Amino acid sequence: MLHYGHINLLRRAKERGDYLIVALSTDEFNWNAKHKKTYFSYEKRKQLLEAIRYVDLVIPEEDWAQKVRDIELYHVNEFVMGDDWKGQFDYLGQETEANVVYLPRTPEISTTQIKKDLNEKQLATQHDSKID
Questions:
Q1: Catalytic machinery residues
Q2: Total number of domains constituting the chain
């Protein structure tokens, strides 16, 4: 669920370098590894990201191990994630030459909170809470 917190993160990530590559989880990866069903298909989510001026390239993410391969393939100098993932990708700094950076989230917004608010207002059902 794309929101302005994501846009802020993408803007700050782009400010750190010349070229921003976004690895976007495929529908299959989301379901098989994360147990999440996406509302929009991979192609539609990719379209949304490609329309954001900070994003230079969107690539499909098909598994967790792909990050190391992508860093090497695209000669990535810096791997950036939101700080809600802090510590989860530190190993990339040891296995690759990329610097791992966790950027602070936009504090007043989160996908989890949006879903909670929608559920409380009965604008979404509990079933939708697994949609990302």
A1: 34, 36
A2: 1
Q: Which residues of the chain have pLDDT under 70?
A: 123-132
Q: What is the Cα–Cα distance from 46 to 44, expressed in whole angstroms?
A: 5
- On whether residue 129 sits in a domain, the answer given is no
In a domain, 88, yes or no: yes
Q: What is the value of pTM for the model shown?
A: 0.84
